[in-house]
Amino acid sequence: xxxxxxxxxxxxxxxxxxxxxxxxxxxxxxxxxxxxxxxxxxxxxxxxxxxxxxxxxxxxxxxxxxxxxxxxxxxxxxxxxxxxxxxxxxxxxxxxxxxxxxxxxxxxxxxxxxxxxxxxxxxxxxxxxxxxxxxxxxxxxxxxxxxxxxxxxxxxxxxxxxxxxxxxxxxxxxxxxxxxxxxxxxxxxxxxxxxxxxxxxxxxxxxxxxxxxxxxxxxxxxxxxxxxxxxxxxxxxxxxxxxxxxxxxxxxxxxxxxxxxxxxxxxxxxxxxxxxxxxxxxxxxxxxxxxxxxxxxxxxxxxxxxxxxxxxxxxxxxxxxxxxxxxxxxxxxxxxxxxxxxxxxxxxxxxxxxxxxxxxxxxxxxxxxxxxxxxxxxxxxxxxxxxxxxxxxxxxxxxxxxxxxxxxxxxxxxxxxxxxxxxxxxxx
Length: 428
Ligand code: GDP
Ligand code: IMO
Ligand code: MG
Description:
Largest sheet: 10 strands, mixed
Number of domains: 3
CATH architecture of the largest domain: 3-Layer(aba) Sandwich
CATH class of the largest domain: Alpha Beta
Number of helices: 13
Structural class: alpha/beta
Helix content: 25-40%
Strand content: 15-25%
CATH superfamily of the largest domain: Adenylosuccinate Synthetase, subunit A, domain 1
Radius of gyration: 22 Å
Bound molecules: guanosine-5'-diphosphate, 6-O-phosphoryl inosine monophosphate, magnesium ion
CATH topology of the largest domain: Adenylosuccinate Synthetase, Chain A, domain 1
């Protein structure tokens, strides 16, 4: 038995969905532990493409138990749509999905406040997905959150909703000039949603404890990426949850030392959607080519992603923070047509070399990447199934990354489809 976690090493969209799908084949259970509908995880096989937002990507494999932990924030109309969409595609959901009764609900006021706050931030705009993520997570430590178990009790739900609406409507009306929400309307809508999702709601902490005791193979599906982690990312240009391995214990209730393997997912170059510093961003033809070849448009919002070459200063920081045991390097095929590939190995700040990732985000904005340039392989690698058959220059690129980070590369992505992968190690 084994517990393996899939964690994004950059700013999200590293192709975690594809890696989770690959490893789900041999897993018994797949668990999401943080984030919410801000995530968009793409899985492609048999000429079909699915994008998952709340539901673990393992749902697309037959008879895999999929659990949404207490650390995930849930948009009920969103997850109901997601479930209905999967059912239309004949994916078995009812037998395989469990949702934690401890998960916090994204309420309509969270979405309105997210959008309104972004509008008023001006230069300090974050570029959020406007799904209400910041406001819903903020209500948790402020003791104002509404959890799924609250919704299961009508009296308690109404009481909490009323209490919240008094404050949130005040803000909406007086600060943002937005029409206040009506208690009875929201209450009725949520009772309808409750009826549709109650069959999935469980005490998932106890279920996961049992699964661990039964020695099941458990795959943990991270959302976003470590550079968006609220504590260790490029604050305030982050998301509101702990997207690093630290989110696991909080988000599902297992002791940290039970996690056996931590697989860091690294895109072979860098992307970011939303605002905030991105040292290796290329605003010229390289960035444009990466976006075009890599089809770098957000899976949740459709926004173009900002692109640039790989940043090893970021990866050194995120590999250490997460205690990464293995790397999955994805989208390597996107570099097939680059005559020269650059890799950032340090930053230069005010003329001085800097090898460590700074905490001060404004300082990071002033950092210039220091690059090492290597020759590209100029070959199509998408059909290659064995590591030894990769072009020598591709192998050197991978070796350089692995040596620099002192972590083995165990999975390589050579295309978006399930079979376009080279797997060098078994995890379960
Ligand atoms: P996630 O949020 O980390 O799951 O990643 P996204 O699904 O948002 O973005 C990854 C995108 O890259 C999706 O469109 C995938 O279909 C695609 N993709 C995944 N792996 C590969 C790969 O190895 N090569 C190429 N070319 N595309 C890939
Ligand atoms: P997956 O799981 C990429 C970004 C947003 C914004 C910042 C805050 O698909 O990798 P939020 O709506 O969370 O308050 O937005 O975080 N962001 C993501 N970027 N991939 C994601 O998820 C993201 N989830 C949030 O673009 O910059
Ligand atoms: Mg994504």
